Amino acid sequence: MGKVYLVGAGPGDPELLTIKGLRAIKEADVILYDRLINKDILDYAEPNTKFFYCGKDPYRHSLPQEETNRMMIQLAKKGHTVTRLKGGDPFVFGRGGEEAEQLATHHIPFEIVPGITSGIAAPAYAGIPVTHRDYSSSVAFITAVNKPGMDKEAYWQHLAQGPETLCIYMGVKRLPEICELLVKFGKNPQTPVALVHMGTATSQHTVTGTLQDITNKAKEITNPAMIIVGDVVNMREKISWFEEQAFKENVNLAK
C-alpha cells in the first residue's frame, strides 16, 4: 500500500510553499496538480516523477473530481507515493475534505499538509490585513458559489450583518450581485472593497473602491481574483508594498 499527501501549494508565490509541502513533492513518485499552483514548484520533484494535471477552470473541467479521487486511490493501492497538489489550502474551498473522505473510506494512508490560502495571502500582498486592532476583529472566508437549494438572500443577509471583513472566493462574475445584496441587507454603500487579481504573483493587480462603485472600477479584473470587503481595505493606502516592488523587479529584468 502506498500513501497520499494532500498538499496546499499556496497562493502563487513559490516561496510560500511550506517546508513540509516541499518534502511531500520530493518524496512523491506521482504528482496530481491543480490549475492554480505555480508550476515552478514541480521542478522540485525527482526526475522520474510522473505528473497528472487535474485542473479545473470556470468554463471546463479537465478531469472530473470523481476521476481524481479514483486515480489517487488506484495509484496508492499499487504502492505509489502520491502527492495531490492543490492551490492555497486543501481544506479552504479546495475540496480536500472530500478527497480525504474518499481516501479514508478506502483505507488509504494519507496526510494533510496545510497551505497558505489566498484569502490571507492575496490581501497581505496587496497591503490589506484581514484583521486590525482598530478596524476588524473578525473575518469570514466565504465562497460566492452557493449550493443548489440554498437560500441565497438569507446567506448574504447573515454575512452583511456579521464579520467585519469578508474575503470572498470565486466571486468576480457575481460582483454586481454581491455588492447589491450586501447593501440591501445593511452594509454601508461606502464600505471599502478591493479586488486582487493573481494575488502573490508578479502579475498581481489590485483595484479598490466601495460597494457602490467597485463594479465599474473593476471591469477589467478577471478570475482568479480575491474580493475583500471591509474597512481594513483602507490600510492599503499606507502599507501597500508588493506591486510596486514587483514592477521595479520586472523593469530591471527588462533592461
Automatic annotation (TrEMBL):
Keywords, comma-separated and alphabetical: Methyltransferase, Porphyrin biosynthesis, S-adenosyl-L-methionine, Transferase
Top-level lineage group: Bacteria
GO molecular function: uroporphyrin-III C-methyltransferase activity
Domain Tetrapyrrole methylase: 3-214
Record bears the keyword S-adenosyl-L-methionine: yes
Keyword Transferase among UniProt keywords: yes
Sequence similarity: Belongs to the precorrin methyltransferase family.
UniProt-recorded name of the protein: Uroporphyrinogen-III C-methyltransferase
Species whose genome carries this gene: Staphylococcus warneri
Name of encoding gene: cobA
